[in-house]
Specification:
Elements lengths: L14 H18 L3 H14 L9 E3 L2 E8 L2 E9 L1 H4 L7 E5 H8 L3 E8 L6 E8 L5 E7 L4 E2 L5 E5 L2 E6 L2 E5 L15 E6 L8 E5 L9 E6 L6 E7 L5 E6 L5 E3 L7 E5 L2 E5 L4 E3 L2 E3 L4 E5 H5 L6 E4 L5 E8 L4 E7 L2 E10 L2 E6 L8 E6 L7 E8 L2 E9 L8 E5 L9 E9 L5 E9 L10 E4 L14 H8 L4 E5 L9 H5 L7 H16 L8 E6 L1 H12 L6 E5 L18 H4 L7 H4 L4 H4 L9 E6 L8 H10 L4 E6 L10 H19 L2
Parallel strand pairs: 34-35, 34-36, 36-37, 37-38, 38-39
Antiparallel strand pairs: 1-2, 2-3, 3-4, 5-6, 6-7, 7-8, 7-9, 10-11, 11-12, 12-13, 14-15, 15-16, 16-17, 18-19, 19-22, 20-21, 22-23, 24-25, 25-26, 26-27, 28-29, 29-30, 30-31, 32-33, 33-35
């Protein structure tokens, strides 16, 4: 787009562009952050995010339970471990394995934790991923947890989008950018290599190679070490959603498993689980999108197509998550966006289904396996908008003892002043769209209530009730009303809900969101001058469309780490991987894409509500140029901009940065909606 006068702002580290960023940041800080009220709010949020009373969630590796802990004294984090007996205590004794703040001081770096993979079975060796400033690009370094040190001469992958994963003690799968021709159109590595200890990285044997014009999220090989089921598997993303599953043969060659690309696939012990995104006719039966099927892997590979139906969607239910344990498959099902847990167990007469007993009946319940190779133990997290999270330890086995409550978050705000309820709006095409409303008790339906509406509506991601202490402290406790919209494009009702707002039908997501806004106004909850919206990433595209398509409905708009220039999005960072969601702007798809491109919908002659744009210089997923260029267009109106130097796509690299960013948007909204 040669006629774009703001194209220079896409050069992320250009001195002139950074000078522009610093000038905008200074204006925003002067406007929003210079009061005692802002300082108090920021400190309150920081105290919540740094609280020693937060639940220290753990992951089991061998006999140890590992946790990454961040607080004011350890902003980048302590990686630490304890035993289960200690973890059960109110104040466990922790053993520090790696102090990231000490590491940063020693190395003069700004590392952010990106994850860890252990060599199994029980080994002290692991692969730690570290990111500079929180970007998606990271490094991988071999670490010894017993020695509490990085391994001298160990595996080390330079900074790039990619990863290492163990094959054996002396071999890893290498997926990374190795220079020209080694990445796909979206910037993700297109080869998986077997890299032996001591060998040059560039000489690692190619185990799998994808095409250069691929636009997927990359390649993910791994070795399954489940005793009796040792094997190598590989998942190749074809775009942001579709995948191909491969299984290595005796010679190490990856052979494709013939399963629909659109389906999610999971191999566990002897089972192949297939979650459909499109209808599939197989074995003489047609299964609907959203169904979960199971087959014995060996039988399936031999050509059998005798598939058991583990879940079939209804008008109100959708499969939200699948967890496997040693003997069971555990399903999280949404029924009108509220969670229920079912345990399925294979037997001689098929699969037995029963609820997971003793689980709290709150809005959202999440489960995860403690160790899927050796036990049926489950972590269970239960929460809703007004109830702090509780962590339980459960057993999926029939007749097991009731779940054990291990940890509970304290109340970080006064929830007694509010009630939460579910309501439904009607979209332009008659579709029933659910939303949650958290409002003060005894609220008057006079349209005078400051209200924040949040949404996402993309990539089959569901928004379920969750305790958000920052929103609680900075919005609800002030007397604000909070709404969360479950619009099409999300996954609240499964694939059909997502697919209803893809590509040329993207407008439906925005119509749904506007319908929720109108419903809030029609019911007297709020009025346009009292209604604000917030969304990030794809949700930033959503709120950008609210700004440019429906400005009359809103009194303030917050747009975070957004896509906005949909003419160029596929050429910026990871943008090409989302063309299955939005379309390809370099083709005739532009005819419909331009109808939801906020950067092109902007009309300088139109009056827009006050707007705050938030992004990160180190966001290497959604290019900060989107937000920069939109701000350049909005500069003459009531608009403010803040770009955090760190943080990646999450916007913040530590709790203090998060508190500052959250305080900015909360203060902005309260100032414009409650005054």
């Amino acid at each position: 787009m040669h006629d774009d006068p703001h194209l220079w702002l896409e050069d992320i580290d250009d001195p002139a562009a950074l000078d522009w960023v610093r000038a905008q940041n200074a204006l925003t800080e002067a406007e929003l952050a210079g009061t005692a009220e802002f300082a108090r709010l920021e400190d309150e949020l920081a105290a919540i995010y740094d609280s020693a009373e937060k639940i220290p969630f753990v992951a089991k590796r061998g006999d140890w339970y590992y946790n990454l802990w961040r607080d004011a004294d350890h902003p980048r984090g302590l990686w630490r471990r304890t035993t289960l007996d200690e973890y059960r205590k109110a104040e466990p004794a922790w053993e520090t394995v790696l102090d990231l703040d000490d590491l940063n001081r020693a190395e003069g770096e700004n590392w952010v934790w990106h994850g860890v993979e252990f060599l199994r079975p029980e080994s002290p060796r692991c692969l730690i991923a570290l990111s500079r400033g929180g970007s998606d690009a990271d490094v991988t370094r071999e670490f010894d947890v017993d020695a509490r040190a990085f391994v001298d001469g160990g595996f080390e992958r330079p900074e790039a989008k990619g990863h290492l994963t163990w094959i054996d003690e002396d071999t890893v799968y290498l997926v990374t950018d190795l220079g020209p021709g080694s990445v796909n159109r979206a910037g993700y590595a297109r080869t998986a290599r077997r890299w032996r200890r001591g060998a040059p990285m560039a000489e690692a044997e190619v185990a799998f190679e994808g095409p250069e014009d691929n636009v997927g999220y990359g390649i993910y090989p791994h070795r399954d070490r489940t005793p009796g089921f040792e094997r190598d598997l590989l998942v190749h993303y074809l775009d942001s959603r579709d995948t191909a599953l491969y299984l290595a043969d005796a010679d190490g060659a990856f052979c494709r498993v013939e399963v629909p690309d659109s389906a999610s696939k999971l191999v566990h012990r002897e089972w192949l689980l297939i979650e459909l995104r499109e209808p599939w006719t197989v074995g003489g039966a047609t299964h609907p999108a959203g169904a979960l099927l199971a087959a014995r892997l060996d039988d399936y590979l031999a050509g059998a197509r005798d598939l058991a139906v583990l879940f079939a969607p209804t008008d109100t239910t959708a499969l939200s998550d699948i967890t496997v344990t040693r003997h069971h498959v555990v399903l999280t099902v949404l029924d009108d966006v509220k969670s229920a847990i079912a345990v399925l167990t294979p037997g001689d007469d098929g699969w037995e289904r029963r609820p997971l007993a003793g689980v709290p009946s709150l809005g959202t319940v999440e489960v995860g396996a403690v160790d899927d190779e050796t036990s049926d133990a489950l972590w269970v997290i239960a929460t809703d908008f007004l109830t702090p999270s509780t962590l339980l330890l459960a057993d999926a086995s029939a007749g097991a003892a009731p779940p054990e409550a291990l940890k509970a978050e304290p109340a970080f705000f006064d929830a007694d002043t509010h009630v939460a309820e579910q309501r439904f709006a009607t979209s332009d095409d008659g579709t029933r769209v659910p939303y949650f409303l958290v409002r003060p008790r005894g609220q008057e339906s006079d349209g005078d209530n400051p209200t924040l509406l949040y949404g996402y509506g993309g990539f089959e991601i569901s928004l379920t009730p969750a305790y958000a202490p920052g929103v609680g402290k900075g919005w609800l406790e002030r007397g604000g009303t909070y709404a969360v919209a479950n619009i099409r494009g999300g996954g609240e009702y499964g694939p059909r809900w997502h697919q209803a707002a893809l590509r040329e039908n993207r407008h439906r997501a925005y119509e749904d969101f506007a319908a929720v806004a109108r419903d809030l106004i029609a019911r007297g909850v709020t009025s346009p001058s009292r209604l604000g919206v917030r969304g990030g990433s794809n949700g930033g595209l959503l709120t950008g469309n609210m700004l440019t398509r429906y400005p009359e409905l809103f009194g303030a708009v917050v747009i975070q780490v957004p896509l906005l220039d949909m003419r160029r999005y596929s050429h910026l960072l990871a943008g090409a991987s989302w063309m299955d969601e939005y379309g390809d702007p370099d083709t005739d798809d532009w005819d419909f894409i331009q109808t939801f491109s906020p950067y092109h919908l902007f009309d300088p002659a139109r009056e827009y509500p006050p707007t705050l744009l938030l992004t990160s210089t180190r966001d290497d997923r959604v290019h900060p140029g989107h937000a920069r260029k939109m701000m350049a267009k909005l500069a003459s109106g009531p608009a403010w901009y803040y770009e955090n130097i760190e943080g990646g796509h999450g916007g913040a690299a530590d709790n203090r940065q998060r508190a500052h960013m959250d305080a900015l948007y909360l203060e902005f909204l309260w100032r414009h909606l409650a005054s």
